[in-house]
């Protein structure tokens, strides 16, 4: 995979992009349930796999810090993964969890397990507003029609999750270009 550009995606509220988005894509980007579960179901009988691309402590990008309402110099747990069906990437995801919001959770041990599987098993999980972009993932350059992000909260734990849907997914599921 090719490393991404440093240009931040231009995010818009979900409702603002609705007129430009097909119904098929709307069902994917506007969903508030587990993307892991949706990908597993849609890709069956293919095997779902999380491919860990990067995981480390670091500083969020300016764009990410602003979304989280965090000062720019705060450290966070950063994780980038490809969500794959039969080793073919369908979604690139980047999670950013401020260290002061980890609430004791040890996320570095996730490895190639899905963060979403853990998050969506929490009964008190709350998802913030979904924002949409047409920009590619800034951390890996792979083409795709849409990206989305939202903040997920479980008690004091807070994480910004950004998911970029790839052309591979569109091709395999025969989704329209938009």
Summarize this structure briefly:
By secondary structure, the protein is of the alpha+beta class.
Portion of residues within helices: 10-25%
What do the pLDDT scores average to?
A: 90
- End-to-end CA span: 23 Å
Strand content: 25-35%
Largest sheet: 8 strands, antiparallel
Shape: globular
Please compute the radius of gyration using only Cα atoms.
15 Å
How many helical stretches? Answer: 6
**Spans of at least 5 consecutive residues with low confidence:** none
- Which sequence of SSEs, written as H and E, runs from N to C? EHHHEHEEHEEEEH
- Assembly form of the protein: single chain
> How many DSSP-defined strands?
8
Structural class by helix and strand composition: alpha+beta
Question: How would you characterize this protein structure?
Answer:
It is a single chain. This protein has 178 residues and is α+β, with helices and mostly antiparallel strands. 22% of the residues lie in helices and 32% in strands. The protein has 6 helices and 8 strands, in the order E-H-H-H-E-H-E-E-H-E-E-E-E-H. Strand 3 and strand 4 form a beta hairpin. The mean pLDDT is 90.
Structural features:
single chain, 178 residues, alpha+beta, 8 strands
